[in-house]
Amino acid sequence: MRLMCQDAIRAIIELEHMGMPFSRNEKGLIAQRPFGGHTKPKDPNNPFGERVPVKRACFSADRTGHVMLQTLYENCIKRGVQFFPEFFVTDLIVQDNIVRGVVAIEIATGEIHIFHAKTVMFATGGYGRVYRITSNAVVGTGDGFAIVYRRGIPLEDMEFVQFHPTGLWRLGILVSEAARGEGGVLRNKFGERFMEKYAPTIKDLAPRDVISRAMYTEIREGRGIQGPDGTYYLLLDLTHLGAEIINKKLPEITGFARIYLGVDPLKEPIPVQPTTHYAMGGIPTNVDAEVVIDDKGTKIEGFYAAGEVACVSVHGANRLGTNSLLDIIVFGRRGGKKMAEYIKEHDFPPLPKDSDEWTRKTIERILNSNGKERVSRIRKELQDVMMDKVSVFRTGDSIKEAIEKIKELKERYKEIKIDDKGKKFNTDLIEAIELGNLLDTAEAIAYSALNRTESRGAHYREDYPKRDDQNWLKHTLIYKNEEKEPIIKYKPVVITKIPPMERKY
Fold it and tell me: Boundaries of each Fumarate reductase/succinate dehydrogenase flavoprotein-like C-terminal domain copy (predicted)?
C-alpha cells in the first residue's frame, strides 16, 4: 500500500504525458474530487481521530477507466504491440513450478494454439458474472481465476467480493461513485437521506461495503421501493446538482439512466441497487506482480498477474474507489519491467508433451455431448444462488446451501449440450467453457467465505458480525489438490507501520 501511494503521482503524470485527457480545474491543473472512503484526519495532530472527506481522486468526467484504457491501447499501437483479439485462453502451461506458455482457441477458426513463452502475465479481469446482478462486462467470467485454480495454484482471499452500492436497478450497470463525489445523495422510499444514520460523518461517501449493507438494511426494514417485477431499489438523487455539473461531469451516468431506465437525472432520482463489482482476492502476487504460492514467497517462475485477477492485497477486504485503476498502472508497470528482465536472463523452457490435452478433451466432450442440460439454465441457477446466498449479507447456513447447489450444478455441467457443432465462431462452445470457469470460481468464493467465521470489509457474516483480529488476521489460500478437491490454507497478514483499527465514519 505504501509503495502504491508513493508511486501514484508519478503514475498519474505518466498517463497525462501519454495523452490521457484528465478533467481540469479552473487553474488548468488535473482536477480532483472526493470519493467513497477517501478521508483525512480532521485534526492533523491526531491521525487516528475523526476523519473527514478529502478531494484526492483524479478523473476524466465519469468515464476515467474507459479513457485510461483507450490511452494505453493507443500507446500500444504506436509501439507496435501485437494483439490477438479473437483468441480465448483456456489453460496455463506450467511444469515443475515454471510457466511455459498458454493454450488458446482461435475463435474465428476454432483451432487450438499453443503460445510458447518465457513469461506469462494474466490480466484477465474479474468474475462478476458469477452473480445475477453485476457491473462487469459479459466476459467477466473468472477465466484467469479458474485456470490457475484448476492447475493447483492457490487463489487468495476469494471471500472478499465487493458490491458497489449504485448499479442501475435490475441491470447492475455501474453508476459511478463520481455521482456521489459530486454531491449526489441516496434516499429511501420516504425521501429520507438514510446514510446519515449509518455513517454520520461522511454519509454518502462512506466505503462501498458500508453503503451496500445500509441499502440492504433499508430494503429489509421496509424502506425500499418495490418495482413491478417484485424486486426492490432505492434512489440516487442528483436533481439538486443542476444541469451544468450533471452534463459536464456526469455525462455517462446521465446517458445510462436515460437509455436503460428512461429516467432523466436532471428531473428525477435514479433507481439503484447494489451490484457485484470487484474481486479483492485473486492470484497471489508480490509487489512486482510475480505469482507467489505461500507465505515464504515461493514463486511460479515466469508467471505474473496484475489488475483485478491478481491479489497483491493493497485492497484488503474492501477496495476504495479509484484504487483499482491505480493498482493496474503501478503494479502492472512493475510486472512488465520484471518480465523484461526475466526474459533477458532465461531461455525458452521446453514444452511438456500434450500441453493442449485439457483443452482438446474439454472441447471434444462438449461438442460430442448429447446431454440434456443447457448452459443458460445452469448459469442462471448459479448466478441466482450466489446472489441470494453469498452476497452482501451471508451466513454459514446460506453459504452451505450455495456450496451444495454448486456441487449439483458441477455434476449437471458434465451433461451440457450445445447446438452449434461447428468450429468457426462457435460462441456456444466458448460460453460452455466459460460456464466451467464460473463454477470453479464460485466454488472458491463459497468455500473461502464459509471458513472465515468473522466479518471483515465486504465479507459480512450475520452469524459472526464482529471482526476478529485475534483469530482471523490472515489471508485465505484456496487451491485444488490432485483429487480436484478444494483445500484451504492460510498465511499471516504482514503488519508494518499502521496497526488495524476500527473503521469509524
Answer: 379-505
